[in-house]
Amino acid sequence: MSKKQKSKYIVIFGCGRLGSLIANLASSSGHSVVVVDKNEYAFHRLNSEFSGFTVVGDAAEFETLKECGMEKADMVFAFTNDDSTNFFISMNARYMFNVENVIARVYDPERIKIFEENGIKTICPAVLMIEKVKEFITGSEED
Fold this sequence. Notes:
Keywords: Ion transport, Potassium, Potassium transport, Transport. By secondary structure, the protein is α/β, with parallel strands linked by helices. It has a single domain (9-138), classed as Rossmann fold, CATH 3.40.50.720. 36% of the residues lie in helices and 19% in strands. 29% of the residues are buried.
């Protein structure tokens, strides 16, 4: 981490493939990381250098949101495998805990607008795939 970059307090909900990769990256970059998942076994995806904390809990329960220290979060990632849960996490992070930087994975492209209207950044795998496939079809991808 560069001297100019302040260490962030990052909370990640969902320790699947994506959540664990981001947790490992953020931890190795010197940030304070808390990963929340309802399945304790999911934490096996975190590498041996991971220096953050893990919380076993249901992200759809407000108590879990409080337990992970969301009130001091600089950044929250809602990366569970359910759009409704990710919306619940995101809205609470934004409005109950005043987290400025909230990023959610959204599976259904039709739901992106409601997240973004509430100041939540989104990552939609379907949209990313469509954009990439368009590049392949039009031949505009980098070789």
